[in-house]
């Protein structure tokens, strides 16, 4: 039994070492970049849906579940305001719930200029890490429909790319998985 466990450990270690040494081809990197940008665009849609006061509570919770699936565990999202220099960081679900509770009659959230600012860099553990920058315009309106608050925030989203395996039809299939990490506030203006 001990021999079997030792052999299994050696096979697992060798498989892990091979996955860590695997480089990403140019074509694969382009596909990964597209997937990462697609996940960021999905997050943009989810934030817009959850922030809308017209979204039903049950629908918002379903969308929050989907948003959480985009992120690494323990990822945080920064919230800022032009009225304060403080930046608050929330885990994904509390961030979305905070967004649902904002005290405005109507909320508009738009993301634009979504682009990579740092190319994927290989880490010692075989994970690749990059940064996508987005600009977010937030507008909150009062009951009369007047603009009560507006800001534009530049945020950096860390992107993690890891080699993973899944079993399909009894065979182990390797694939690159893209997960979002922390969303850090870089700058907030009232423009």
Question: What's the SSE blueprint?
Answer:
Elements: H1 2-21, H2 26-51, H3 57-69, E1 76-81, E2 84-91, H4 92-100, E3 106-122, E4 128-141, E5 147-168, E6 171-189
Antiparallel strand pairs: 1-2, 3-4, 4-5, 5-6
Helix pairs in contact: 2-3, 3-4
Explain this structure:
- α2 (26-51) runs antiparallel to α3 and α3 (57-69) runs antiparallel to α4 (92-100).
- The protein has four helices and six strands, in the order αααββαββββ.
- It is of the alpha+beta class and 191 residues long.
- It has a four-stranded antiparallel β-sheet with strand order 3-4-5-6, covered by helices on one side. Strands 1-2 form a two-stranded antiparallel sheet.
- It starts with a helix and ends with a strand.
- It has a single domain (26-189), classed as Nuclear Transport Factor 2, Chain: A (Roll), CATH 3.10.450.
- Runs in which pLDDT lies below 50 for 5 or more consecutive residues are 1-21
Highest CATH level, the class: Alpha Beta
Q: List the helices and strands in order.
A: HHHEEHEEEE
Q: In which order are the strands of the major sheet placed?
A: 3-4-5-6
**Number of strand elements:** 6
State the share of residues found in helices, binned by percent.
Answer: 25-40%
Cα distance, first to last residue?
67 Å
The pLDDT mean sits at 87
Major sheet details: 4 strands, antiparallel
CATH architecture: Roll
| Helix/strand/pairing category | alpha+beta
Helical segment tally?
A: 4
| Strand-residue proportion | over 45%
Radius of gyration, in angstroms, nearest whole number: 20 Å
Shape summary: globular
């Amino acid at each position: 039994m001990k021999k079997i466990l030792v052999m299994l450990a050696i096979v697992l270690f060798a498989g892990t070492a091979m996955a860590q040494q695997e480089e990403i081809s140019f074509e694969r990197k382009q596909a990964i970049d597209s997937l990462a940008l697609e996940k960021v665009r999905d997050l943009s849609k989810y934030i817009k849906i959850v922030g809308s006061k017209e979204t039903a509570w049950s629908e918002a919770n379903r969308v929050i579940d989907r948003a959480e699936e985009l992120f690494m565990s323990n990822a945080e999202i920064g919230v800022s305001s032009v009225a304060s220099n403080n930046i608050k960081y929330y885990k994904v679900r509390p961030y979305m719930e905070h967004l649902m509770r904002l005290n405005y009659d109507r909320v508009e959230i738009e993301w634009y200029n979504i682009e990579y600012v740092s190319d994927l860099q290989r880490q010692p553990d075989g994970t690749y890490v990059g940064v996508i920058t987005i600009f977010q315009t937030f507008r909150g309106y009062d009951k009369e429909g007047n603009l009560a608050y507006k800001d534009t925030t530049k945020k950096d989203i860390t992107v993690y790319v890891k080699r993973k395996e899944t079993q399909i039809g009894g065979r182990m299939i390797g694939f690159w998985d893209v997960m979002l990490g922390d969303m850090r506030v870089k700058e907030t203006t009232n423009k």
